Each structure stands twice: as C-alpha cells, then as structure tokens.
Amino acid sequence: MNWPTQLPLIAILRGIRPEHALAHAEALVEAGFDAIEIPLNSPDWQTSLRAVSARFGAQALIGGGTVLRPDQADALADAGGQLVVTPNTRPTLIAHAVKRGLYVAAGFATASEAFDALDAGAQALKLFPATTYGPAHVKALRAVLPPVPLFAVGGITPSNLADYLRAGCIGAGLGSDLYKPDQDLTRTTQMARAFVAAYRDATA
Question: Which of 37, 119, 132, 187 has a 20 to 30 Å separation from 150 between CA atoms?
C-alpha cells in the first residue's frame, strides 16, 4: 500500500474556523503540503471542509480527523472529503469508510490494534500519541508490520521529526506545533515551511 500524496506530512487544523480555513489551507499548499486534515471537533467543520475541498481538492488530499462513527465518515464524504483519520481502532468504522471510497489512516498504539485496523481495510496507520511511545516503539513495530504507510502523530516538531522517520515512519501528522486555533497566518506559514524543510533534510 502506498501513501497517495507527494509529501507524507498531514497538516492538522484542529479548531480552525470557517472564516480562516481557506487562507491557512492556501498557506499550507504554497509551502508544499498536499494533505490537510480538519478535525471534526472544530467549529462548523463541515463548512470548512467543504470550502477547502472545493478549492484545493485537486491539489491535495483533504479530509477530517477525530472521526469516531460511521455517520461522521458519511458526513465527511458528503462534504467532499477524501481522507478519514481516526484517533483509535474501530474496525466497523474503518470498514465503512473504506466502503465509501475514503482513504483511512487509522489510529493505533499496539501491534494488535494495528493488525485489527489493517484487517478492516485501513490503508495507513497512525501511531498516536507518538511521543508517549517514542521512536523505539516505532522501530519495534516495524519489525512485525507489513510495509504500510506509518505516521507518527502527537508531539511531533521539526526537531524530532527525523527521529521518527529514521525509526520507520514515512511521515507524520502535525498538530499544535503547526497550527493552534486563531493563530496568525504568518505563524502557519513559518511552521509549515519549517516542517517541510525538516522532512526534506531528513530524507535527502
């Protein structure tokens, strides 16, 4: 299984408001991002997702995170989303989302959860929260996991990204170090460029 974008970094815009969504998404795309997640616990997330997907869906994989139930996956698909990111392993949700034609990055912590997610059809795995377990956990998991896209999410910064890539992740989901609710657009641009540079340096 392959990750469907050029840059395996997922920008997580948790808490983004609809009136800010397009500007911050544009800053991310201009910095090189081609995967953007709008968590479903953000204010009026469907409005933001619909707008970002309509504007950037041809250039980037746009979707939603903190997806917990099949009806939320349906709402995400109906709003134009292509990517489902979960914080946990729910085989019924994963199978439903895959049936809807969505790309699923499933949250997990243990090898058992990872294999349950893959058996349900998940196309990628998301170790969460990554810094609780650390790069050594990633390396140990890689010894038993098939060659599926593996992302580190939770506490990833430009300075520790390389550690997780070396351990066996293909990329990372980037949350509060990239974007905090209502932060200035210049901060989003600055951090987006820093993460892209860190990724390129680590994989050069």
Answer: 187
Which helix (H) or strand (E) segment is 203 a member of? helix 185-203
Q: Which domains does the chain have, with CATH numbers?
A: 9-191 (3.20.20.70)
Q: How many CA atoms lie within 13 A of 133 on its CB side?
A: 22
- Which residue among the candidates 19, 30, 99, 126 is catalytic per the annotation? 126
CA distances from 117 to 97, 139, 145, 150 (A): 12, 19, 12, 12
CB 26 within 8 A of CB 192: no
Burial class (CB in 10 A: 0-12, 13-18, 19+), 67: buried
Catalytic residue among 26, 37, 113, 139: 37
Is 126 an active-site residue? yes
pLDDT digits (tens, 9 = 90+) for 29-60: 999 999 999 999 999 999 999 999 999 999 99
Tokens for 162? 């390389």
